[in-house]
Task: structure prediction
Amino acid sequence: MTAIVAHFADHSPPAPAMHGATRSSPAGVTAILRLEGAAAFAAAIALYAHAGFSWPLFALLILAPDLAMLPYLIGPRAGAAAYNLAHTYALSVPLALAGYWLASPIVAALGLIWIAHIGMDRMFGYGLKYATGFADTHLGRFGRN
Result:
């Protein structure tokens, strides 16, 4: 798991292999990944609502994973590693499942909020970061080019 996070933090996006491609992902691939994020966001919201968890808690914590951007104050490599760790389903999904298996509503709620945040970010085009800069993501480059 840390090897995957480190890969994105330590490497620049690969050079484009297709004629006419840019540093960003091909439009079709990006659209599919954004749709996948929207599906994860919707599923997390549906499960959260079905479980009857607290909406004020949801509103309070939906942006909490973005605190992982603070290491960007140290540098882009530290920022990318921390951001990627906080924006991977590999940690949020097991947390939500553990909450259900352990019959712990707060743990399940936290996991679903975390999944919803990641899905929302991906839906809006915020992907895992490369160490080259915050705007360089696995979904392509965003912001001003």
Summary: Confidence is low (pLDDT under 50) at residues 12-22.
